[in-house]
């Protein structure tokens, strides 16, 4: 919940993670559970020169959400979630 949104090439929602947070919980699902699929890319960024963690999620319309915990070591972490599912892709 919360976060900021940008557009272009798929909606992007992002959150700056406070440095005292050691991990974040990610929960993702299709808004129309068990009827529509979803596809998204999750990235955890930490500073300009550090490697990023990348996760690609795709669901064919099941009734169970994706649930994961991502470690957020140190300061300067930003969690990005980009929607990769477009209306033109169909269900």
Written account of the structure:
This protein is mostly beta strands and about 90 residues long. About 0% of the residues lie in helices and about 50% in strands. The chain contains no helices and 7 strands. The chain has strands at about 5, 10-15, 25-30, 40-45, 55-60, 65-70, 75-85. The strands form 2 sheets. A 5-stranded antiparallel sheet has the order 1-2-7-4-5, with no helix packed on it. Strand 1 and strand 2 (about 10-15) form a beta hairpin. The two termini are about 25 Å apart. About 5% of the residues are buried. The model has no long low-confidence stretch (mean pLDDT about 80).
Features:
about 90 residues; mainly beta; about 0% helix; elongated
In short:
The protein has 91 residues and is an all-beta fold.
- Spell the H/E element sequence: EEEEEEE
Mean pLDDT across residues: 78
N-to-C span? 25 Å
Number of strands: 7
Stretches where pLDDT falls below 50 for ≥5 residues?
Answer: none
What's the number of helices? Answer: 0
Shape: elongated
Order of the strands making up the biggest sheet: 1-2-7-4-5
Share of helix, binned: under 10%
List the helices and strands and how they pair.
Elements: E1 4-6, E2 12-17, E3 23-28, E4 38-46, E5 53-59, E6 66-71, E7 77-83
